[in-house]
Amino acid sequence: MPTKNIEDQLAELQSETGEQHVAVTFTLNEVTQTVVLPSRTLVSDAIRHHLRKTGTHVGCEHGVCGACTVLLDGKPIRSCLMLAASLEGRSVTTVEGLVEPDGTLHPVQQAFKDCHGLQCGFCTPGFVTTIAAFIKENPNPTRAEATEAIAGNLCRCTGYQNIKASVLRAAEITRERAGESPLGQDDESSRASLDAKVRGTTNPVGGRGSKL
After folding, report:
1. Residue (of 144, 124, 148) closest to 190 by Cα position
2. In sequence order, which residues have a C-beta less than 8 Å from that of residue 40 and are 6 or more positions away?
């Protein structure tokens, strides 16, 4: 039986549902694909429900919490505020797409593991994608810059200290993988990032015995 072309699919769906549908072709985690969906579909819903990349979480649905953050052409955006139809020809990276093909964790993912940067994990994907974009632009942040980088994302569990440490640790890992000195700026915040608690031990950052 011949496969229906996109135009026939769109016409049939509109006839069946009374709702306009669109076909959108874009790249998701380096794989280009075309998806047919209602024209009102948000990027977050397209990713989670149509393409089954459920690492992207939806929280407030008002662009406030940051849980749904993905990278659009390398820049962090709130996927709950953008229509999927506007993705045509563009590139989206979710938290799943940050992992290397051989399974190596992205520096930010590894840093969250090293620094105990998550608890319930619901907000974590949004933090990871946000920080990944930040580290790419600023591979040697200060603690103040790390704090500013995560200011737009909300977490109800961690108290943010371990997340801030994860930003510094991610920068450190990025430099290490590039063959550079793990210690960037010769300042107190950079040296703090090399503390054993930041690298990850049985105690979370800021816990008993921590020097941070």
Report:
1. 144
2. 19, 83
Per the domain annotation, does 210 fall within a domain?
A: no
* CA–CA dist 26, 171 (Å, integer): 30
Tell me, what's the pLDDT at 188?
A: 53
What are the residues facing 27 on neighbouring strands?
Answer: 32, 91
Together in a domain, 33 and 89: yes
Distance of CA 170 to the CA centre of its chain: 14
* Interval 107-123: pLDDT, tens: 999 999 999 999 999 99
Q: What is the DSSP letter of 96?
A: G
Whether 1 is in a domain gets the answer no
Name the residue range of residue 58's domain: 6-11+20-97
Low-confidence ranges of the chain (pLDDT < 50): 1, 186-187, 190-191, 193-194, 196-212
What's the pLDDT score for residue 3? 62
Task: Give domain status of residue 162, yes or no.
Answer: yes
Element (H or E) spanning 2, and its range?
none
Identify whether residues 77 and 160 lie together within a single domain: no
User: Do both 121 and 92 map to the same domain?
Assistant: no
Q: What is the pLDDT of residue 5?
A: 84
Q: Long-range contacts for 2-6 (Cβ within 8 Å, ≥24 apart)?
A: 6/34, 6/36
Q: What is the pLDDT of residues 173-193, one digit of tens each?
A: 999 999 887 765 544 554 454
CB 102 within 8 A of CB 84: no
